[in-house]
Design a protein that fits this description.
Strand content of chain A: 25-35%
Order of helices and strands of chain A: EEEHEEHEHHHEHEHEEHHEE
Helix content of chain A: 25-40%
Strand content of chain B: 15-25%
Number of helices of chain B: 6
Number of strands of chain B: 9
Oligomer: heterodimer
Strand order of the largest sheet of chain B: 6-7-8-3-9
Radius of gyration of chain A: 20 Å
Largest sheet of chain B: 5 strands, parallel
Structural class of chain A: alpha/beta
Order of helices and strands of chain B: EEEHEEEHHHEHEHE
Distance between the termini of chain A: 28 Å
Number of domains of chain B: 1
Number of helices of chain A: 9
CATH class of chain B: Alpha Beta
Radius of gyration of chain B: 16 Å
Strand order of the largest sheet of chain A: 6-7-8-3-9-10-12-11
Number of strands of chain A: 12
Distance between the termini of chain B: 31 Å
Helix content of chain B: 25-40%
Largest sheet of chain A: 8 strands, mixed
Largest interface: A-B, 35 and 31 residues
Bound molecules: iron/sulfur cluster
Chain lengths: 306, 198
């Protein structure tokens, strides 16, 4: 059963640029679902709306954002009030920036205040061991922590929160390989206990190690949702031209780039958002924004995909 | 002209040594990977090689002469966070101005002409990093130090940036240091690898 569902989500901002109000559509008709026991990885370019999706789910978008679409947690609509009530309890985030640690709070108490049920002190000690944080780290303030330690404090806080869904926004940069592997493994165990994980990452390799499905983002929308088995060979099992290009661009695959760049949110084309860079683009592609459709046990937003 | 590090050692004040007596030579046309766990001093070594930080001991020579940060900069450094490397009040056009970047490089990096009139705050990380790389590939550049240069970027942007860099590198016989935690990227790019330990 889906624990978290997002359907047709659109987010736009009104911004002032050169004294004009400009509408920026940062997320367009995005749909994604995370089942119990599942890790869904979100991969895509920077600026493709990955982090904004996390903010939308948690209800922490800036006030000038306009939101449209449906978000459900365990089948119930996520209103702002519900998001506030669930945040940190049922839905936890592992934020992208280590600066999100409260600079005036010691590492130990940061983790203890994240505990919502059970003995905070015991749980904190336990999770510190699990993340190889020495006892003396409990007493340290964020500025005294190395980047890697700060990151492990953030991971530990999410793990003790008792949440049913973790949104991990680039949880591993700056961690050494061994810690990355462990952090990913912990997310896997978390999901295996019947919870859900939305793993936002630019690192397909990491996603392939632990995720069940991968949602590929481009210019603020999902272009494909595929199971990880589809990411192999030359990308022949993948459905969308952008997913194939992303796969072939990895250094261990072809390392082949494609020309151009992702369109900016205030200059989105009317039809397919990838059309300007797509070799298969035809007139019909620019006529309308392609719908997400089922194809070979996955989903794709491309009228020509087979 | 070579970039040479001779017996470099570094520590902050009286803290333990970050590294000791590191010798390193980079020749024109060479691409060398620098690997090591976090905390082994890779970033500091990059900053020393580019002349931004003075070593506690040892020296860096460019073509046999001590490196400085004055005037013409043949050694360019690009690091992970473009937003920290750009003046937020400069339009992108101004960022590129002093570097004398060829149009073919802008094109290879996928830089769109309308981005030039934007301020850094109006562009995404991937867009900004293309500018940092373009600026570092000005006509006078002989050596590039790439410290986790494409770490936060998606694979396509990463491949696009590195292809542009490697083309310029071959044409002009540039030497490059690649710092990355991603072994597959290093394997793809580098002729040889140096490891720092903790
Ligand atoms: S809809 Fe057309 S332009 Fe868009 S990805 Fe498919 S083939 Fe390419």
């Amino acid at each position: 059963m889906a624990i978290l569902e997002v359907e047709n989500l659109s987010v736009s901002f009104n911004q002032y640029k050169m004294f004009r109000s400009v509408k920026s559509k940062v997320i367009s008709s995005l749909s994604i679902a995370v089942d119990e026991g599942e890790i869904v990885a979100v991969v895509g370019a920077s600026g493709s709306g990955k982090s904004l999706l996390a903010q939308a789910i948690l209800g922490i978008l800036p006030p000038n954002a306009t939101i449209d679409g449906i978000m459900l947690f365990r089948g119930e609509t996520l209103t702002l009030a519900r998001q506030k009530a669930l945040r940190g309890r049922e839905i936890a985030i592992i934020p992208q920036s280590v600066n999100s640690l409260d600079p005036l709070m010691r590492a130990g108490s940061h983790v203890r205040t994240s505990v919502t049920a059970g003995n905070a002190s015991d749980l904190q000690k336990e999770v510190f061991k699990r993340y190889h944080l020495e006892e003396k780290v409990e007493k340290l303030y964020p500025f005294q922590l190395s980047g890697g330690m700060a990151r492990r404090v953030l991971l530990a806080s999410a793990m003790v929160s008792g949440a049913k869904v973790i949104i991990a926004d680039e949880p591993t940069p700056g961690l050494d390989e061994q810690y990355v592997a462990e952090a990913l493994q912990h997310l896997r165990e978390f999901a295996d206990n019947g919870c859900g994980v939305l793993l936002i990452t630019h690192d397909i390799g990491a996603a392939l190690k632990i995720a069940d499905k991968i949602a590929v983002f481009y210019a603020g929308t999902t272009v494909e949702i595929a199971s990880i088995e589809n990411f192999r060979g030359d990308g022949e099992d993948l459905r969308h031209p952008f997913s194939k290009a992303l796969w072939r661009a990895l250094p261990e695959n072809g390392f082949e780039p494609i020309p151009g760049s992702q369109p900016q949110p205030d200059k989105l084309p009317s039809g397919c958002l990838f059309a300007a860079r797509c070799k298969k683009a035809a007139a019909a592609c620019s006529a309308a924004f392609p719908e997400m459709r089922e194809l070979r046990n996955g989903r794709v937003r491309c009228i020509h995909a087979t | 002209m070579q970039l040479e590090a001779k017996k470099l050692s570094y520590r902050y004040g009286c803290y333990p040594w970050l590294f000791r007596e590191v010798d390193f030579t980079l020749s024109p046309g060479e691409v060398v990977g620098l690997l090591g766990p976090s905390g082994s001093g890779k970033t500091t070594l990059c900053r020393i090689l580019a002349g931004y930080v003075k070593p506690a001991e040892g020296r860096v020579l460019l073509g046999g002469k001590p490196i400085t940060r004055k005037g013409y900069q043949p050694v360019q450094l690009v690091f992970q966070h473009p937003e920290k490397a750009l003046n937020p009040r400069w339009r992108m056009r101004k960022v590129l101005k002093e570097a004398e970047v060829e149009d073919s490089i802008l094109e290879a990096l996928g830089i769109q002409s309308e981005w030039l009139s934007h301020f850094p705050g109006e562009l995404s990380g991937g867009e900004l990093q293309r500018f940092c790389v373009a600026r570092a590939l000005g006509k006078g550049t002989r050596f590039l130090i790439a410290d986790e240069m494409t770490t936060m970027l998606d694979a396509i942007t990463q491949a696009q940036i590195w292809n542009a860099v490697l083309n310029a590198q071959k044409q002009r016989e540039m030497g490059i240091v690649v710092v990355s935690h991603e072994e597959k990227l290093v394997a793809r790019l580098c002729d040889r690898v140096m490891r720092l330990s903790r």
